[in-house]
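In this notebook, the sequence line spells out the residues, with the fold written below as integer tokens. This is how one looks.
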Amino acid sequence: MDAQEELKCPVCVEPFTDPVCLPCGHNFCQTCIRVVWNMDDPKASREGPLFCPECQILLPSDLKLEINSDLQRKVQDVFSKAPSLEGSSHRSRSIIMCDQCIGKTEVAVKSCLTCDASLCSAHTLLHQQREALRGHSLIEVTEDLISFKCKEHGEELKLFCQEDQTTVCCLCIALGAHKNHQAVTLQKACSEFKKVLETNKSLLLQRKHLAESAMKDLEPLFSEVSENAKAYRLRIVEKYNKIKAQIEEDQKLMLAILETEEFYTKKWLRWRNESLECHVKDINAALRSSQSLLEEENDILFLQHLKNNRHGSQVELPLLSVIEQEYSTSDKMKTVEQLVDNLDEVVFHNTQRLWSSLRAVSLDPETAHPELEVSADKLGVHWSKKPTPERKRKTNISSQYSVQAKERFSSGSHYWEVAVWKKPYWLIGLSYASATRDQDSEHLNGDFNNVFCYIYHGNGKYLVCQDSNEKSLAVSKTIQKLGVLVDIPKGAMSFYDGDTLTLLHSFHVKFSGPVCPIFNPCIDINGQNSQPLSIVHLRNKNIS
């Protein structure tokens, strides 16, 4: 007998509630022993001695029942930690009396589906001993016998229809709605489903191990990013100390870029870590649910809960993206050092740094598709699939998963960067907008059809488009940060690798009105594209 069985009342066969200990040493629920002794029945005679239902020893009639506090605490400790399942065999604490007793009624411990009756210990033993009653189906005592019988024929649910995945009676298979369907016994069905659950459990444990291993691999990367930034920072400072005062402004710019790189790399790593934590939580929840089902001993309840919770088939888990190299030496940091080495030539030709035109672009949540979530700082957007009621009521939201920036450009030159990291799908472009926010109309709200220039990344391939003219790009390395330059006076829009400042593609554009940046993180499938698009802002930039 396990520890939990020792903490169950012999009368109701449930965990003790307000247990009392009799002088003979046997424990019972206070309610159960009072029912056995008819103490709450005003018509019952209470003359004569009491007795223990277990050992039948006689007890004084004036016996006082006192709660066994030590046993009660032990019951609470054990069963509060035990896994539970809503609607499982742990029924309510109501007492069910035997239907077969004549005269003094005993507490029922079993229910017979064949007799439609609840049985006390003595009548349960009679069912087990008599040849004519041995074929009866005995289950844990319950008031709800209807749940164990066919609603159409009133017969016991003894079979499992494999075609409709439900419990049925013999008449359902022979004459009813499940006629000619393939059916197996409940025991065989439960055995097969438990095998599936065991396989699922094994898969879940494997996925959990992979997720936890990936999380451990991420831990040293945070310090590695800091160490890399620190090393590059020291080397850059040394180089700048050798250069004249006229390039101090350039030094401040480069340091701001380094700090920005460190910030956004850590931001991405934090997001990756949080995603893995959520993955582990989902796996743990699935494990708990599977374990609770595996512990269910009643076949009918097991199959009913299995169908209700949709655990009867092979578990479908979102694929876990495990990246061998979560972070590589930053190209942007290398670019900073290379630019410093070539500073004399840059200054001589009076070449302006592209990063000096980096704009602080921010997102406009009001233009976001309902299934997109914009971060609180309005610098990031990702697929959420949790539309808010306010956003769902908007009728002017396009079916495309986009969000616009707050900024509108009608003159000058503007550059911004977006961290795309390892996202397999994303789209970044430019759309037309009205000159002021007050003039914005319904066609502005993330309308993909209003995007006249964009770059699209789809699973390693890059595509640029102006109006309806598409063109594939041959990109030698994965773009982790995309740079966008809009030069309205020159009529040009260009896309850059934001780390190496390599030009990817440039369009000649005849701007017909104010334009604004547009961002599309694309739909998430199986958790593979849930990462956010993050707009890059310079950190601690102090340039006059």
Q: What stands out?
A: Residues 84-93, 391-399, 435-449 have pLDDT under 50 and may be disordered. The longest helix spans residues 186-241. The chain has eleven helices and 23 strands.
